[in-house]
Design brief:
The protein is α/β, with parallel strands linked by helices. It contains ten helices and 13 strands. The strands form three sheets. A five-stranded mixed barrel has the order 8-11-9-10-12.
Length: 275
C-alpha cells in the first residue's frame, strides 16, 4: 500500500528554529526550509503531513509552511525527551499506517533525474515493512549519523537487507559490526534523513523506557524481528544544523540553478579576497 502520511520532526532543543530559515531555490524562489520539505512531500503523493514542534512554536511554523497549511497538522512535543520521543508523539496521527518520516533540519539535492524523495518512495512503495534511505558516508562523519550494517539484496541495485543499526558509532565499532561488502574502505551506510516506518516501530518506541528515547534502537529491534531494508539514494543531504550547514545548502541550490556560472565566479572572487 502506498504511503500517504508524512511526519517531520522539528522540535529538537536548540534546533527548532532551523526549519524556519529561508533559502533561495535553484529557480530563484525564496522559501523556508520547512516549505521546501513540504513541497517535496506533497509533490510525491502524500495526502497529509504532521510536524512535531516545540512548545509555543505553532504560529511561527504556520507562517513558514505557506500554501501547505491546510494539509498540515502540528503536534507539540511538550518535553525534549529525545528524537525517538518526538517520533512517538505522532503515533496517533500515524495510526495503523506506514508513514514517511523526515528530519526538519535536512535538505536535499538530487544527482539523478528523480528527486531524492522520489527515488526513495519509488522503492518504499514497492516493499512491505520499514525502510530507510542511506548513503555511503566516510567514517569521519560517523559521529553525526545513525549507521546500518547488513548485506545487499541479491539482484538489486542499491537495496540492502539491514541486520544492525547503531546510533553514531565510533569507527572502531563500525569496522567490527557495520561492514557492508562492496563498499569502499572507510565508508559506511549512514542514514540519509528519510525513513518509512510501520506501527511495529512505534510500538517498540512506546514500550522503551530509555531516556533520552532514540529511534535507532527501535530500528535495530525491527531488524532483529522482521524484514527491514535500506535504500541507497543518489543525491546530497545538507544538515543545516551543522556549522555552515545552511550555507552549504544554499550554495548547493545556487550551483544547481541557472545562475551557476555567476555563483562560481563569486565564490572564486571571495576565495581570492579572503585567503
Amino acid at each position: 500500500m502506498k504511503i500517504k502520511k508524512a511526519v517531520i520532526t522539528a522540535a529538537g532543543p536548540g534546533q527548532h528554529h532551523l526549519p524556519l530559515q529561508t533559502l533561495v531555490s535553484p529557480n530563484g524562489e525564496t522559501k523556508t526550509a520547512i516549505a521546501f520539505l513540504l513541497d517535496e512531500i506533497f509533490a510525491n503523493g502524500m495526502e497529509s503531513a504532521a510536524i512535531v514542534i516545540a512548545p509555543n512554536c505553532e504560529r511561527d511554523f504556520s507562517n513558514a509552511v505557506g500554501e501547505h497549511l491546510p494539509k498540515v497538522t502540528f503536534i507539540e512535543q511538550s518535553d525534549p525527551l529525545g528524537y525517538g520521543h518526538a517520533v512517538l508523539c505522532a503515533r496517533e496521527f500515524a495510526g495503523v499506517d506506514r508513514i514517511l518520516l523526515m528530519l526538519g533540519d535536512h535538505l536535499y539535492l538530487t544527482q539523478s533525474d528523480e528527486s531524492c524523495l522520489g527515488q526513495f518512495l519509488a522503492v518504499a512503495n514497492q516493499v512491505e515493512g520499514s525502510i530507510s534511505a542511506v548513503q555511503p558516508t566516510h567514517e569521519s562523519k560517523l559521529p553525526i549519523y545513525g549507521t546500518v550494517g547488513g548485506q545487499r539484496v541479491s539482484g538489486s541495485n542499491g537495496l540492502y537487507e539491514v541486520s544492525t543499526v547503531l546510533e553514531k558509532p565510533t569507527p572502531t565499532v563500525a569496522e567490527q559490526e557495520l561492514i557492508i561488502p562492496g563498499l569502499r574502505s572507510g565508508n559506511y551506510l549512514c542514514f540519509f534523513g528519510m525513513h518509512v516506518i510501520n506501527p511495529a516501530v512505534m510500538k517498540h518506541l512506546a514500550e522503551s523506557d530509555s531516556t533520552p528515547l532514540l529511534l535507532s534502537p527501535s530500528l535495530n529491534a525491527t531488524a532483529q524481528n522482521e524484514n527491514y531494508l535500506a535504500c541507497e539514494i543518489e543525491g546530497i543531504r545538507f544538515n543545516i544544523g551543522e556549522p555552515h550547514g545552511l550555507l552549504r545548502a544554499q550554495l548547493g541550490m545556487a550551483l544547481a540553478g541557472e545562475s551557476r556560472d555567476e555563483v562560481m565566479a563569486s565564490i572564486i572572487e571571495l576565495i581570492a579576497m579572503t585567503r
